[in-house]
Design brief:
With 138 residues, the protein is an alpha/beta fold. The protein is 44% helix and 20% strand. It has a 6-stranded parallel sheet, with helices on both faces. Helix 5 links the parallel strand 5 and strand 6. Helix 4 runs parallel beside helix 5. The radius of gyration is 15 Å and the shape is globular. The N and C termini lie far apart (40 Å).
Length: 138
């Protein structure tokens, strides 16, 4: 079972928690918010096992295999690096970062830590994408 930590407890985080709840082989294990009560309410709503009142506290949870960053994109560089520095692979909600320089910095950090970081752009991974690519290239 892939245990996913969700960093941020807003609307898009709820969408991911619902998606994870319907998947086999993965679960929304933990959620972190700067407000512990908000994290606890989110956990109750979406059936998340653990709620944390700080991002660092969640990132110290050894059971977390992957972190989904669902904070505003203006914070993706900071939060992505925080996850990587805690040894966690990252799935980062779009927009990946606020600009190209930040994206390069975040990717360099992931390479330095030998960890995965990728943007959560679901259409890229859909089977129909292969069909569209074939049509465009023809």
């Amino acid at each position: 079972m892939l245990h996913v930590g969700i960093l941020g407890a807003g609307h898009i985080a709820g969408t991911m928690a619902k998606t994870l709840g319907a998947m086999e082989g993965a679960c929304a294990w933990a959620v972190a918010s700067r407000d512990k009560e908000r994290a606890e309410a989110f956990a109750r709503t979406y059936g998340v096992e653990r709620a944390y009142g700080s991002y660092e506290e969640m990132l110290d949870d050894p059971k977390i295999d992957l972190v989904y960053v669902a904070t505003p994109h203006s914070h993706h560089l900071e939060h992505g690096k925080l996850c990587l520095e805690h040894g966690k692979p990252v799935l980062c909600e779009k927009a990946f970062t606020a600009n190209a320089a930040q994206a390069r910095e975040l990717i360099a950090c992931a390479k330095a830590h030998k960890l995965l970081i990728t943007e959560a752009i679901w259409t890229r991974y859909m089977p129909s994408r292969k069909i569209i690519d074939a049509i465009v290239s023809s």
